[in-house]
Design brief:
Elements (H helix, E strand, L loop, with lengths): L1 H22 L4 H40 L8 H14 L6 E2 L3 E2 L2 H22 L1
Helix pairs in contact: 1-2
InterPro entries: 7tm6_olfct_rcpt
Keywords: Cell membrane, Membrane, Olfaction, Receptor, Sensory transduction, Transducer, Transmembrane, Transmembrane helix
GO molecular function, one term: odorant binding
Length: 127
């Protein structure tokens, strides 16, 4: 099941990339529906990436707030619970794409660099 979802996601990215390359030489009136599909796909991905960044940032904020607690006044059971909680939150929570990529703003930069490289390669080969 997991590999089917990964395959369909990668296939969707490839189709989106092919649509971008195929609609570059077309006039605006003919390529507008395809560009709308591409824009919807990109907007959906940006929402997921921003959600992942929010999860990571908020987990870091929670950990920083836990460090500010007056734990030394607590009883032994609560201190152990706090210690376990701190151990869990020591690494920030991250939304991962099937264990392959972290869904955060760094991913946006990687994607934009890749798209920029492909578009420049396409332009260099067609001129």
């Amino acid at each position: 099941m997991k590999f089917r979802i990964i395959f369909s996601t990668i296939l969707g990215c490839i189709v989106c990339g092919c649509l971008i390359i195929a609609t570059m030489p077309l006039p605006l009136s003919k390529s507008l529906p395809y560009q709308g599909l591409i824009l919807c796909y990109i907007a959906f991905q940006l929402v997921l990436i921003e959600l992942g960044q929010t999860i990571q940032t908020q987990s870091e904020v929670v950990y920083d707030n836990i460090l500010q607690l007056n734990w030394y006044r607590w009883n032994r059971v609560n201190r152990k619970t706090l210690l376990m909680f701190m151990k869990i939150l020591q690494k920030p929570m991250k939304m991962r794409f099937y264990g392959l990529l972290n869904m955060n703003r760094e991913l946006i930069l990687k994607i934009f660099k890749g798209v920029y490289s492909v578009v420049n390669l396409y332009k260099a080969t067609t001129v």
